[in-house]
């Protein structure tokens, strides 16, 4: 069956925007000491709401790759490669700039992070999409997940003689200690390190496969049903794989890829049904606005945080003042912290809304 003409999915724009809003909310609680457990990353094995955000965004990157390049599969490749490389370098450079904030301490600089991973994964997956069919992409994803599982569960960590998956003692941590430059997020290991980048590529491959499905000439209801069914099956497979290879965002384990990609596929299927099929568009307007300049909104949040979280006012920062004031009313400090985080999301919505009103879409 031939591909249908490429059309813009409001559901995908909204999903991207709400994902960025959620990312800002969990990255900037009102007070680091007062956070609901599900709004924190798991310390090691397990899954929280926060753990779902980054893989959902990478899944969206994959869907977007399919929509962006589906009509260019037969076009000359080198001009496309140049654009892909330039865009990846720009995203990586912005990630490095954010890592230098607020004091530009170069000796203590971290070379990894959310934008760095997005840049690398986009580069690899965009080139992969332009040169392979869906079966080859699926095979590549399966091979990476299986090899990663075997590597972490059968190869002893050098220097210990043991196969371990504990923080800072596993094979991925050892590779980072040997080859990752700069500061690591957790001292002797990094959740966005070298080995864990490989399964994160598979997260985006699953998005590419979902994008290919959305581009097929199928009835809309069938697309929604396929996304939801495939997502449920993928998440279930990830759950059972997790019984022997735990669901773990820090290692980005193979089971984590399947569980989170399954969730993202079901979410996209549900939004596609509600928004693009049923036409329920008013409720998703904030997501569309955030999604139109998603990475810009993410970058602005880090910059605006210098005012709302870093700059001292009256002996303390604005966020601590606000949480303390709300707590004094008898409110749970964790709720106060979450409300301030939501307030900060709203602050970031203002420039996103202004850009959207002026039809300015900043593409890195």
UniProtKB/TrEMBL annotation:
<feature type="transmembrane region" description="Helical">
    <location>
        <begin position="287"/>
        <end position="311"/>
    </location>
</feature>
<feature type="transmembrane region" description="Helical">
    <location>
        <begin position="114"/>
        <end position="131"/>
    </location>
</feature>
<feature type="transmembrane region" description="Helical">
    <location>
        <begin position="48"/>
        <end position="68"/>
    </location>
</feature>
<feature type="transmembrane region" description="Helical">
    <location>
        <begin position="80"/>
        <end position="102"/>
    </location>
</feature>
<feature type="transmembrane region" description="Helical">
    <location>
        <begin position="138"/>
        <end position="155"/>
    </location>
</feature>
<feature type="transmembrane region" description="Helical">
    <location>
        <begin position="9"/>
        <end position="28"/>
    </location>
</feature>
<feature type="transmembrane region" description="Helical">
    <location>
        <begin position="251"/>
        <end position="275"/>
    </location>
</feature>
<feature type="transmembrane region" description="Helical">
    <location>
        <begin position="194"/>
        <end position="215"/>
    </location>
</feature>
<dbReference type="InterPro" id="IPR012429">
    <property type="entry name" value="HGSNAT_cat"/>
</dbReference>
<keyword id="KW-1133">Transmembrane helix</keyword>
<dbReference type="Pfam" id="PF07786">
    <property type="entry name" value="HGSNAT_cat"/>
</dbReference>
<feature type="transmembrane region" description="Helical">
    <location>
        <begin position="227"/>
        <end position="245"/>
    </location>
</feature>
<keyword id="KW-0472">Membrane</keyword>
<feature type="domain" description="Heparan-alpha-glucosaminide N-acetyltransferase catalytic">
    <location>
        <begin position="8"/>
        <end position="217"/>
    </location>
</feature>
<keyword id="KW-0812">Transmembrane</keyword>
<protein>
    <submittedName>
        <fullName>Membrane protein</fullName>
    </submittedName>
</protein>
<feature type="transmembrane region" description="Helical">
    <location>
        <begin position="335"/>
        <end position="356"/>
    </location>
</feature>
């Amino acid at each position: 069956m031939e591909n249908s003409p490429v059309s813009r999915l409001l559901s995908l724009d909204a999903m991207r925007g709400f994902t960025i809003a959620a990312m800002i909310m969990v990255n900037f609680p009102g007070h680091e000491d007062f956070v609901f457990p599900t709004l924190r990353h798991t310390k090691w094995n397990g899954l929280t709401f926060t753990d779902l955000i980054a893989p959902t965004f990478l899944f969206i990157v994959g869907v977007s790759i399919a929509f962006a390049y589906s009509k260019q599969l037969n076009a000359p490749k080198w001009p496309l490669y140049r654009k892909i490389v330039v865009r990846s370098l720009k995203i990586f450079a912005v990630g490095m700039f954010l890592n230098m904030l607020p004091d530009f301490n170069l000796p203590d600089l971290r070379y990894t992070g959310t934008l760095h991973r997005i840049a690398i994964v986009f580069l690899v997956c965009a080139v992969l999409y332009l040169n392979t069919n869906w079966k080859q992409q699926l095979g590549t994803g399966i091979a990476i997940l299986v090899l990663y599982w075997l590597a972490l569960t059968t190869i002893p960590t050098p220097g210990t003689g043991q196969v371990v998956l504990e923080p800072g003692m596993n094979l991925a941590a050892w590779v980072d200690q040997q080859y990752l430059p700069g500061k690591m997020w957790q001292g002797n290991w990094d959740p966005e390190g070298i080995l864990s980048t490989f399964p994160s590529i598979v997260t985006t491959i699953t998005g590419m496969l979902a994008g290919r499905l959305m581009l097929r000439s199928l009835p809309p209801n069938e697309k929604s049903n396929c996304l939801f069914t495939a997502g449920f099956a993928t998440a279930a497979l990830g759950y059972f794989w997790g019984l022997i290879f735990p669901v773990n965002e820090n290692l980005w384990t193979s089971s984590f890829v399947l569980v989170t990609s399954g969730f993202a596929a079901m979410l996209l299927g549900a939004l596609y049904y509600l928004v693009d099929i049923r036409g329920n568009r008013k409720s998703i307007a904030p997501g569309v606005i955030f999604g139109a300049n998603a990475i810009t909104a993410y970058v602005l949040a880090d910059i605006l945080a210098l005012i709302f979280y870093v700059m001292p006012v009256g002996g303390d920062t604005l966020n601590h003042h606000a949480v303390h004031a709300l707590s004094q009313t008898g409110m749970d400090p964790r709720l106060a912290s979450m409300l301030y985080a939501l307030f900060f999301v709203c602050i970031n919505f203002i420039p996103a809304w202004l850009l959207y009103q002026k039809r300015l879409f900043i593409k890195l």
